[in-house]
Task: inverse folding
């Protein structure tokens, strides 16, 4: 766990530099998923940067594509991306856009950024895996605001009906969406019951606690012949006190002074 | 046409274990034989078309060859963003098969009509757009779709369309088929259900000693650019005929080429005007209202030709158009 905490610091540092350098938005959304992504890529996913086309690999879809700075950094640490590529994030003529684009050589399984698409495509991948008797599993990370999309519930109903046990959804439940608090805009509660009523097996965890994340992800499917959903309670902007739980950091990028304050806080952790 | 599609696909399934057919709860009885012969390869995804497209993308990303079926408006317009992003942006091997293109479901009303689908599908990078002209073309099109790897939209009619081709034509994606070659006064590019109407119209014109050449322009994207350029050099007039809005369909695709070739002859689009259907009736009735019966197509062509200065014969507006003037609008584009 200690080494993952160090990795968390590294990834947050990468994100800070990427977002500051590019003047990009979504730092709060990226910080919110750092632990989930590290746990997935270093403990759970059976993927190999040397064999990214393996038909039996596990697949991960970052359906909340706007958190891609976190994904890019984790992919770099996991050996899918050269760390130098991160420097070209969000720049004219650069290397990486502010939403991920499909490129298996980089470990990116789907172009995302338009919210709501990942679960349906992931269900298709899980279906294929089931048809082929492949060991490949599919993990889809969604934002809480994203779950308001009807497209998500079409896929949820389908996956529940067909018992797609190879499919796991993780919801980054940081309680803030693009224009305010989820509970004020279009409340998801009772979120666990909603998923269960759609035929999913659900578990709630602290989305920043490595022990809880790895335990949950390591036990999917929670029930045989059911898809699993992990509702991860998180904090938007987690890791930097003045980012945490603030809508502003969905949009704002840190200036020089904020960058150095944020870096100091992260290094102290 | 739908029967041609499903029987050909059933055949292809026997040779390729990766073919899957998804339907969003449409095609009652249509798929009975297919389901019996390939039970594991048919999936009814329910009344959730966007999810059908997402599933198709996931299956195709895992190496499957996926055919998705629904009625045209629900398949193409409800799911536009899923098609754009999940299918076309990833350049996936997914074929969208739409039933009931144009005004085929006449009495079902505007919800079931589709006069905008070609326009929207044509705008998508990587997408091929095909509208077969008769049941035989539909069958050949499905065979070609199997060989081609990438996104494709196939617009079919309903059932019982008349045959145009007496013998098996050379069907290639992006290459029009010459149906009549009898003169250089009029060149007709027709697509989909309108091929048969255009054939009948051409016969009427030939009786009046007007020279006509007719092509089945089954592929609207990529349109047969070379053929259009060559016709621009040898015909006095070019007409497009389609059961689709005059905005964005075959007429637009052909006019784009002609404009860039600085074509100096006469060009007219014959199709459905830019409006939602306001009549009540079956397919044939609506087609006639919109000037898409064989007789009205021929009259329009003759009228347009005779209207041009320097051509023999006096212009007389055909009486058949008077019925459409009640509200001051002329439905003939």
Result:
């Amino acid at each position: 766990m200690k080494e993952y905490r160090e990795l968390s610091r590294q990834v947050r540092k990468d994100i800070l530099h990427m977002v500051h350098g590019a003047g990009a938005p979504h730092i709060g959304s990226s910080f919110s998923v750092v632990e989930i992504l590290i746990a997935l890529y270093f403990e759970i996913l059976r993927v190999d940067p040397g064999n990214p086309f393996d038909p039996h690999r596990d697949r991960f879809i970052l359906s909340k594509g706007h958190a891609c700075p976190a994904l890019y950094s984790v992919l770099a640490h996991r050996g899918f991306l050269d760390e130098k590529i991160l420097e070209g994030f969000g720049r004219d003529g650069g290397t990486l856009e502010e939403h991920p684009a499909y490129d298996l050589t980089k470990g990116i399984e789907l172009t995302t950024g338009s919210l709501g698409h990942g679960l349906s495509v992931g269900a298709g991948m899980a279906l294929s895996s089931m048809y082929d008797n492949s060991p490949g599993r599919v993990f889809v990370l969604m934002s809480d605001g994203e779950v308001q999309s009807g497209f998500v519930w079409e896929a949820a109903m389908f996956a529940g009906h067909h018992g797609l046990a190879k499919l796991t959804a993780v919801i980054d439940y940081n309680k803030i969406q693009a224009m305010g608090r989820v509970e004020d805009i279009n409340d998801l509660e009772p979120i666990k019951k909603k998923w269960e009523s759609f035929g999913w097996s659900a578990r709630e965890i602290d989305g920043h606690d490595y022990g809880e994340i790895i335990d949950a992800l390591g036990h999917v499917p929670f029930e045989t012949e059911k898809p699993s959903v992990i509702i991860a309670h998180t904090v938007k902007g987690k890791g930097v006190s003045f980012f945490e739980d603030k809508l502003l950091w969905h949009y704002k990028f840190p200036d020089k002074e904020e960058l150095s304050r944020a870096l100091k806080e992260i290094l102290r952790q | 046409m739908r029967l041609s599609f499903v029987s050909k696909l059933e055949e292809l399934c026997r040779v390729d274990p990766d073919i899957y057919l998804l339907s969003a709860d449409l095609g009652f009885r249509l798929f009975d034989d297919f389901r019996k012969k390939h039970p594991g390869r048919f999936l009814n995804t329910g009344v959730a078309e966007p999810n059908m497209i997402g599933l198709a993308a996931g299956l195709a990303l895992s190496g499957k060859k996926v055919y998705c079926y629904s009625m045209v408006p629900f398949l193409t317009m409800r799911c536009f963003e899923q098609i754009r992003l999940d299918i076309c942006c990833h350049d996936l091997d997914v074929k969208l098969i739409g039933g009931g293109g144009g005004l085929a479901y006449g009495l079902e009303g505007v919800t079931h009509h589709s006069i905008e689908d070609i326009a929207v599908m044509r705008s998508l990078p990587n997408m091929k757009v095909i509208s077969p002209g008769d049941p035989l073309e539909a069958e050949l099109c499905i065979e070609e779709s199997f060989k081609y790897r990438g996104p494709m939209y196939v617009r079919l009619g309903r059932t019982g369309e008349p045959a145009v081709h007496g013998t098996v034509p050379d069907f290639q994606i992006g290459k029009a088929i010459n149906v009549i070659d009898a003169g250089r006064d009029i060149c007709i590019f027709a697509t989909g259900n309108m091929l048969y109407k255009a054939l009948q119209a051409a016969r009427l014109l030939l009786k009046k000693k007007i020279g006509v050449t007719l092509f089945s322009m089954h592929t609207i994207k990529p349109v047969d650019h070379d053929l259009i350029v060559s016709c621009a050099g040898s015909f006095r007039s070019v007409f497009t005929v389609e059961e689709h809005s005059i905005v964005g369909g075959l007429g637009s695709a052909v006019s784009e080429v002609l404009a860039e070739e600085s074509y100096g002859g006469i060009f007219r689009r014959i199709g459905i005007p830019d409006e939602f259907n306001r009549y009540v009736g079956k397919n044939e009735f609506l087609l006639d209202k919109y000037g898409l019966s064989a007789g009205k197509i021929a009259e329009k062509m003759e009228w347009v030709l005779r209207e041009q200065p320097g051509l023999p014969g006096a212009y007389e507006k055909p009486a058949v158009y008077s019925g459409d003037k009640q509200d001051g609008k002329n439905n003939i584009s």
